Amino acid sequence: MALPEAGAATPRPFLWRVDGPTPSFLFGTVHSAAPTVRAIAPVVFKALDHCTSFHPEIELSPEIAAQVALRLFAATTPDLKTRLPLPLWKRVESAGAQLGLPAPLLQRLTPGLAALVFATPVEEDEIGATVDGQLYAHSQSRGLVIAALESVDEQLDLFANLPPAQAQALLAESLDDFETGHVRLAKLLAAYASGDEGRISVEIEKEFQDPSVHKLADPLLYRRTAMMLSRAEPALKRGGAFVAVGAAHLVGPRGLVALLRSRGFKVTRVQP
Fold first, then answer.
1. Edge-to-edge strands, sheet with 53-56
2. CB of 17 within 8 A of CB of 25?
3. Which of 78, 189, 269, 270 has the fewest Cβ atoms surrounding its Cβ within 10 A?
4. What is the three-class DSSP state of 243?
């Protein structure tokens, strides 16, 4: 796996051990292939190699990118231009042009899905190069049982069906970051690379600080974390499970680590 050598691995990866007859592990990922975060610490692969099942957020097979594209630009989606204030549509059109996406294609998006399109730098769009993608490929090569905690349709439906006002606010926020060269995302990635739990918690909270998107913390973060817990818990009780989800779902008082501890699990952060 030559790709991860683009940068130094996180000095203290977001890795926790869940005790049991056979230990399980929780790992906080970041959905990015940026050079600052894509190198995965050896201790993470060592933990994965001691497990028999792998539980990512969603399936990351080679076919998944095509599936996502088909869902994003579904022909049955109403005209985006008519669903947005004209200034916001003009921003979408301009950002889309920078990504090589023509207006007729953009119009097939819902406001919430449009927010997803502009949330990640185009050069980081290669799924296999992301932290999640590397772990998925490693698990496949080891013959681990792979059971995703969410389906692609569940994730995309969540964004596609956001209330109009909240979806527009999220889209505007994504465009703000896109138009400034993803400065906000860079801060989040720097916090992840530091391995500092408190620092990344602060950056995650900032994502929902603006009153226009504050209500989105519940459907996009907390409810999904609770759902991931319900789906991962049986595997964690059996043991030998490696759960790899976005770090936002692990840290903080409503993250998986705290929730599992409240249910009686012994969860300890792994030292590198």
1. 145-146, 53-56, 241-246, 24-29, 15-18, 267-269
2. yes
3. 78
4. strand
Asked if residues 212 and 239 have their Cβ atoms less than 8 Å apart, the reply is no
Residue at 37: amino acid letter: V
CB 240 within 8 A of CB 50: yes
CA dist 114 and 99 (Å) reads: 12
Domain boundaries, the chain: 3-269
φ, ψ of residue 241 in degrees (nearest 5) = -105, 140
Q: For 58-72, what is each residue's pLDDT tens digit? A: 988 777 777 777 777
Give the 3-state secondary structure of residue 271: coil
Antiparallel, parallel or unpaired: β 145-146 and 267-269: unpaired
Please give the C-alpha separations between residue 172 and each of 85, 118, 179, 206, in angstroms, as whole numbers: 11, 10, 10, 15
